[in-house]
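Final report, closing paragraph on structural work. Over the funding period we assembled a curated collection of sequence-structure pairs, and we close with a single example.
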Amino acid sequence: MDSLVARDRSLLQVKDLRTVFATRENDVHAVNGVSFHVREGELLGIVGESGSGKSVTMMSLLKLIPMPPARIVSGEVIFDGRDLLKLKPNELRDVRGGQIGFIFQDPMTSLNPVFTVGFQLIEPLQTHLGLSKKEARARAAELLELVGIPSAKDRLDDYPHQFSGGMRQRVMIAIALACDPKMLIADEPTTALDVTIQAQILEIVRKLRQELGMAMIWITHDLGVVAGIADRVMVMYGGLIVEHAPVKRLYGAPKHPYTKALLETLPSLEDQRSERLVTIGGQPPSLDAEPTSCPFAPRCQYAFERCWRENPPLRMVDDGLAENGDSHDVACWWDIDRGEPFNGGEPFDVR
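Its predicted structure, as stored:
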């Protein structure tokens, strides 16, 4: 989809990325032709249920997935003019942490429990920036202060288990920012935190964006979080992008039935009635084969015969209505606004 790969102003350009995992029974097609871009200084939100391919897509960019059993079968990942998928291992190590920071979902399993927090902060500073131990330690203390950890110099000699969950996540952010990367990828960094700590982490992210101006990719299943921080949103399902739009357009006028269903599951503060929360019926698709039909069809109330025959391509449905020339793109045969198929056909309800 050309509108998702804007080569002229993009720091990161991903084209037709496909990742497959080999199992004893069959191959699992986790990422099925994903294309997108990220500009300098902007935040791209990626949302979808568990198993939709969000994390695997982002980890594939830096070859952080275990290979084998995984293999990247096609695609380009152009970052700052270089294809990351073609880099040698030592060249890719320079990019990881040095130019692209990565915040993982669970800080307790991501931080090494046998090394102090200071050691884990100092090591990348010495490796990527060539700082002396004294300089790196001073910089490590500054980073802990930047993410809001009190008595930063004293905490450098503490171990991960001596920090709370929220503080460990702050340490992970500090490590990701250690070498002043051009881009930060955050993989559901607030999922395991309570709402108070989550709000603090989000406030840190907003502050860092203003001060450092770095590009960010924020992976989450929480649409409420994305609404407050993202410039654009990409919705994934079955290893595919099913909708992409500037954040206000996506929340104000969703075009894909899956996006619409996700938004309907959000509880409303204005609704005082005691009603059950809305859920999406059915289960996420099996990924044991590359999709040849719409992966959301078995759960979709708008599905009709064509949805079962063909996998819809990502197409532009709104152009010129958003800032920066970003279009509203959707992969669906059904026109929600008009209540009819895009190219004719009789709908039926599969449920």
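The mean pLDDT is 85. Residues 144 and 152 are 6 Å apart (CA to CA). We thank the funder for supporting this effort.
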